[in-house]
Amino acid sequence: MADEELEALRQRRLGEIRAEHGDPSADPSQQEAKQREAEIRNTILAQVLDQAARARLSNLALVKPDKAKAVENYLIQMARIGQLAGKVSEQGLIEILEKVSQQTEKRTTVKFNRRKVLDSDEEDDY
C-alpha cells in the first residue's frame, strides 16, 4: 500500500480522536479527509474481497458495525503485509469472522450472592 494511503488513514484516525474529545480544530477539510479515507478503504476491500464476501461484510456492517470495522481493519492489515494471496472468498471471510469473534468474545459470568435474612422461617420451626 502506498504511503499516501497510510498517511490518509493516520489523518482520519487523528481526526476521529479529536472529534471524540471535542477538539475545535475539526473542520470541513477533515470531512473531506474522512471521505477520501472511506474511498481508500473501499478500494482496498474491493481488491481483497470477491463479490459474495463483500456482500456478506456489508450485511454484517448493518447488524454489527463494530465487528465489521474490526474485520475490515484485519483484512486491510493483512493486505498491507502481503498475507493475502488473491481475493478472499465468502468461506475465507467466514473463517476470518470466526477468528475475530474468538478474539473479541466477551465471557460473562453470573455470580449469585445469596444473603441470609435474619428473620427467616427456618428458625421458627424449632
From TrEMBL:
Tell me which species this is from: Polioptila caerulea (Blue-grey gnatcatcher)
Enumerate composition-biased segments (Basic and acidic residues). 11-24
- Gene3D superfamilies given in the database record: PDCD5-like
So what does this one do? May function in the process of apoptosis.
User: Does the record bear Phosphoprotein in its keywords?
Assistant: yes
Query: Quick one: which gene encodes this?
Result: Pdcd5
Q: What is this protein called?
A: Programmed cell death protein 5
The family line of this record is: Belongs to the PDCD5 family.
Q: Which UniProt keywords apply?
A: Acetylation, Apoptosis, Phosphoprotein
Q: Does the keyword Acetylation apply?
A: yes
| Region listing for Disordered, in residue ranges | 11-37
One Pfam entry name: dsDNA_bind
Q: Which GO terms describe its cellular component?
A: cytosol; nucleus
Question: From its record, what is one biological process in GO terms?
Answer: apoptotic process
